[in-house]
Structure formats: C-alpha cells, structure tokens
Design goal:
41% helix, 15 helices, globular, alpha/beta, binds pyridoxal-5'-phosphate, 474 residues, single chain, Aspartate Aminotransferase, domain 2, Arc Repressor Mutant, subunit A, eight-stranded mixed sheet, 16 strands
Length: 474
C-alpha cells in the first residue's frame, strides 16, 4: 500500500529524530517553517505531527510548538535473571548458529541478527585512506609476514589506548590476532585442553560457545542478572563443585544483555578467580562503546596476579573486515605468540599496518564520542518500538553501551519459530537458543540496533511484534 503524503512527512521527521537531528527535548521547527521547508500544505504538516504525537514520539507544549519527547526507560521491564543448571555441558547449539548466520546473509534481508554495525557507524572513509596510504607507501604490505606478536606500531597504539581501560600495558605484552574470536580461542588454548570445563556467562555470545565446542571443552553456564551481571555467588558454588579451567566474561556491555558490572563487582570477580587460581579470559570488545561518562575499566585493571588474559578487537568500532584483534597478557604472552604462529603464521600485514596508521593519524576518540551517542539513540529508538509493538509481557534489556538488545517474549513464543516466520518476511533475528550451550532461552531473541534507520526498520519491528503476538496467542 502506498504511503499517504502526511505519512511520508512523518517518516522523514521520525528518521531525523532517530538520527539525532532533533534530539530528545528539542523543539521541532514551527509549522510554517515545516510547510515551506517540506513544500507541503499546513494540513499535511499538522497530520504528520499528529501521527508522531499519537506514537508518543513528540509532544505539543502550549503556545511553543512540538518537542521531541525525552526518552524514558522507566516503563521498560528488564528480562528475568537467568537460572541455568550449574552443570558442565558439551555445546550442542552451534551447528544451528552457523546455519542461522548463513541463512541471514542475503542482501534483501534486513539484518537484525548478527552484532555487526552497519557501515554508516564505522569510520569507513578514514580506514580506507589508511589502507590506500599503506598500499602506496609500504611496499612490504603484502610481500612480508608480520609475524607474532605483530606490527610494533599497532601494538604501541593498542598499549596506549589500554590506559583508558585502567591497564598498564607494554607493547611487548600485546599479541595481534585475527579478531577477538581468534583472541579468545588462543587464550582458551593457552590455559586449557580438550575435556576441560570453562565457566561462561549465561546467556552468552554464541561465538564463544562455538569456540568451546571447537576446542572440545565443556561450557558451565553461570547465571547473570540484567543489571548486576555475572552472579558471583553462583560462580563461587561452581568453583567449589567443579574443576574449572578458565572463566570467560565480557567486562563491559555484555552480549546479549548489555550490562556493565560495577568496579566493585569487577574487582570481586578477579579476586574470586585468583583465590581459586582460575585464569579469567576477559572479552572487552564493546568497552569503547559506553553511553555515558568515562570509558569503564577492564577486569585486567584489578589483576594483581597476572591471571587475566585481556582480549579485544577493532571489529565493533573500526573495521570488522580487517580482522584485527589482540590478546594482552604478560604471563601467557609467549604461549599465545606460539599458538598464533602455529595456527596461521601471522595476522595480515596490510590490515595491521592500516589500523596502526588509522590510530596514529585519525581522530579515533572524536569518532568514538559521536558513534556512542548514535548507538544510544539507536538502542532507545528500538526499545521504544519494542515497547509499542511487542506483545504484553515482553521484557527487554536496557543496555548501558554497545548496540544489541535482548528481548524476553511471552513464554508461549518459540524463538526458532519466530525466527523462521521473520525470515519469510525477509527479516533476520537471532533466536535465544544459540546463546546457550543447551539451547535454553527458547522465548528470547537478540536484536542488532546498529542498522541504518529507515521506515523499513520501523515496519520490520512492527511486523516482528505482530508475529510474536500471534505466536503468543496460539
Ligand atoms: C562479545 C563478542 N566477542 C567477540 C566477538 C568476535 O569479534 P571479532 O569479529 O573481532 O572476531 C563478538 C562479535 O560479535 C562479540 O560480540
């Protein structure tokens, strides 16, 4: 059905609000100004504004015009705290995860499943300039192996940036990897062997479960709270009961719940694992993407015994396709270096050098400041649509950073069924089952909000809400 003119105008204004042209609390241009600027009649402008007001996006203030409503998240109900069984499990959900990722990667499918930012949120031009510069000026960009630990200037830049996460890193303690996924795999290999038990957050990022599966290890899912994060009491019980070889946790803005543990709880986690002499593999891939204030510190900042293997990458902030990540650890450095070498000799030279050049010459911190507030808007916009269109009883996370949203649907909704129906409608979502070793979270889904905002995205969320409501009622 074709949109009426006033609906098109409303969409245009909605898009401008979502992109932050008019941030929460700001006055929209007056009716006459909109009429002239948009080249439509006053009654079309009024109908468009009435539509946005009915949606709760703007509000009229007497005699002074229309204002973008401040975003309040107070009405949102958080997902319930997770309660997995404290029993180590072989991972069984991961072929499913691979099938889903493959099925979702078609150009005409709206990508709300994988946690990959749309290129409009990445410094693509700046990194392109760095790639061009390195290809032109550094002849060895592809004729030379940049053997482990990796390109020295890149390691220097990473060590410099780690200060903001509260870590004193020496470039020599940083080993460059192919993204954070490989960093985690090498860290797991450095501290464990097939058959070992690894404690993980539940729900957790499915790439970690795939890694555990690939290494023949077992996952022990530890309960989490949507605000507090990892349940330290439950972790301690598990440490008492099982011989745990390592614990893997996201330190800031977990995937999928988006929580950020307080400094006190971070210190307590490091201390607890130190007491049991269990290495902590820290994943800080979202650490630069907090919505407010200073960059939160890493677990590693509390590590007095050198038991934390800090892993991260530039995939969420600069260029997922360059595949550059790293492990930072003094104690395990040599082992990681060796493992990197035997696995695939080195990380690509061009990628490493281009990132080093980008970090040296582009204003990465200014870029981060901008993109963080963009992500906050994206997340709020999506939360708003979820609360409007999803069935009663839906609960949703309130991430403090990053860009993924974890949705708990009414118990009758099977997330795999919703995934299939959504895919038929050319929308991909990540069903909750892949965030657990034993396919729990059957009525949960994860959504990626780092998509270019459009009427298609809005329509897709409405449609998802309708599909979920139908399943909830059946
Ligand atoms: C928590 C977390 N860790 C690791 C990764 C993998 O990152 P990379 O693309 O750098 O390998 C992801 C990607 O989605 C992630 O969300």
């Amino acid at each position: 059905m074709t949109e009426k003119l006033y609906e098109q105008i409303a969409s245009q204004l909605r898009g401008q609000i979502a992109r932050g042209v008019y941030p929460p609390g700001e006055r929209l241009p007056g009716i006459r100004k909109l009429k002239t600027g948009l080249g439509v009649s006053i009654s079309t402008v009024l109908s468009a504004l009435a539509l946005l007001e009915a949606e709760g996006l703007i509000e009229a203030q007497s005699r002074s015009g229309f204002y973008v409503k401040p975003v309040t998240l107070a009405h949102i109900t958080l997902p319930t705290a997770s309660q997995p069984d404290l029993i180590p499990q072989p991972v069984t959900s991961q072929q499913l995860a691979l099938n889903l990722v493959k099925a979702s990667h078609h150009v005409d499918i709206l990508q709300l499943s994988t946690a990959v930012p749309d290129e409009c949120f990445l410094p693509t031009d700046a990194i392109g300039r760095s790639v061009a510069h390195v290809s032109r000026r550094q002849k060895e960009h592809s004729s030379y192996y940049e053997f482990p630990p990796g390109h020295i200037e890149l390691r220097r830049q990473i060590a410099k940036r780690l200060v903001m996460a509260g870590c004193e890193a020496r470039p020599d303690d940083v080993v460059i990897t192919a993204g954070c996924q490989e960093a985690i795999i090498l860290a797991l290999q450095a501290v464990g062997a097939p058959g070992d038990v690894v404690a993980v957050e539940s729900p957790t990022f499915y790439g970690l479960l795939q890694a555990i599966n690939y290494l023949g290890m077992k996952a022990l899912e530890i309960p989490t709270d949507p605000v507090e994060g990892l349940n330290l009491g439950a972790l301690e019980m598990a440490l008492e009961q099982w011989q745990i070889k390592a614990c893997v946790a996201v330190s800031n803005f977990s995937n999928p719940l988006g929580y950020c543990m307080s400094d006190g709880r971070k210190a307590a986690l490091v201390d607890l694992l130190e007491r049991y002499q269990v290495p902590l593999i820290e994943d800080d891939i979202y650490g630069d993407l907090g919505f407010s204030g200073d960059r939160p510190v890493a677990f590693k900042a509390f590590d007095t015994q050198d038991q934390v293997l800090y892993c991260s990458s530039f995939s969420k902030t600069v260029a997922p396709g360059l595949r550059v990540g790293w492990v930072f650890s003094h104690q395990y450095r040599e082992k990681i270096e060796f493992l990197k070498y035997v696995n695939n000799l080195s990380a690509p030279t061009l990628s490493q050098r281009a990132l080093a050049h980008y970090l040296q010459h582009a204003n990465h911190d200014r870029f981060l400041r901008r993109v963080r507030s963009q992500y906050q808007r994206q997340v709020h916009r999506m939360l708003d649509l979820i609360t409007h269109y999803f069935p009663t009883g839906t609960r949703v996370s309130q991430p403090k950073g990053g860009f993924v949203i974890w949705v708990e649907l009414p118990i009758q909704v099977n997330a795999l069924e919703l995934y299939r129906l959504a895919l038929e409608a050319r929308i991909s979502i990540a069903p909750g089952q892949i965030f657990s070793a034993r396919q729990k979270y059957e009525h949960f889904i994860r959504l990626n909000s780092a998509v270019q905002w459009s009427t298609r995205v809005e329509a897709a969320l409405k449609q998802l809400g309708q599909l979920a409501s139908t399943l909830a009622a059946s």
